[in-house]
Amino acid sequence: MANDRSKLKVWWDGKLVNYNDAKVPVLAHSLQYGSGIFEGLRAYQNRKGTAIFRLQDHVRRFFRTAKIYQMDLGYTQKQFESAIIETVRANKLGSCYIRPFAFYNTDQVGLGTHGDKVTTAIAAIPFGAYFGKGKETGIRCKTSTWKRINSEILPVEAKASGNYINSLIAHHEARASGFDEAIMLSTQGRIAEGTAENIFLYMDNYLLTPNYSADILVGITRDSVIKLAQDAGIEVVETELHKEELYIADEVFFTGTAAEVTPVVNVDGIKVGNGKPGPITKMLSEKYSEAATGENEMFGNWLTYI
């Protein structure tokens, strides 16, 4: 994360520019009001080259977010897919994290955005494990006192910058309490998600994950893991889950583009299972890695080679 990015190229309104030249006004609307929208993708290097994982699905969600917020991106989905490929290729990166972003590039003070310029940008950076060693050893989580936003407050299906202030304050609370990450509950008290991750519980031979009623962001990695689990013969149930089920589950893990598959080994000071990553979590993590790196050809349609 602290790597020198000055030599990287950023796709900026249709052109590749130097990373340090991608600048916005200090009074930019999206900087002031959190009105930007974004996506997060990964590309993985494998024996055949570099492949972006589920490119079309991420771009589709990006455009859906734009529609929710009535933001005209000025490009088709196909054009934007090509721009992402161009950005990764220009930076000569193998495995990397990709961040498409769109924002109101105007310095007018005021909440309205009608007719304001929308800038679209794509950055690609080297990126390792989001939770560091925790991806292998597991992380400790705290159920947050802050509730997950719901669709009566903000569109939870949109990846908008402002939504993540809710996540940020929960994450800070967890870290201040000595934990690695927060688990957020819905306003109805049901398990929702992490601050930027979906969550799964394995218990009684079922893989459980919160359904739409918990106001989750329906993650693309979440969908991938569901399909991989079903392919492995594991029954997946999308349902309402209570907080105490975190304490009695055999295994708990997060999923997300950045997090990939990360074991949760402790919740609120209570060990999950035996306090170590469980066999189902390890197996699904391996299967996810195989799919993302082209080792499992059954899921080859998830990969876009550059």
Structure annotation, total helices: 8
Q: How large, in whole angstroms, is the Cα Rg? A: 19 Å
The number of strands is 17
Structural class: alpha+beta
Question: Which stretches are low in confidence, meaning pLDDT under 50 for 5 or more residues running?
Answer: none
Structural notes for this entry:
The chain has 306 residues and is of the alpha+beta class. The chain has two domains: 9-125, Aminotransferase class 4, branched-chain amino acid transferase, N-terminal domain (D-amino Acid Aminotransferase, Chain A, domain 1); 134-292, D-amino Acid Aminotransferase, subunit A, domain 2 (D-amino Acid Aminotransferase, Chain A, domain 2, Alpha-Beta Barrel), CATH 3.20.10. The protein has eight helices and 17 strands. Strands 8, 9, 10, 11, 12, 13, 14, 15 and 16 form a nine-stranded mixed sheet that branches. Strands 1, 2, 3, 4, 5, 6, 7 and 17 form an eight-stranded antiparallel sheet that branches. It is globular. The model has no long low-confidence stretch (mean pLDDT 96).
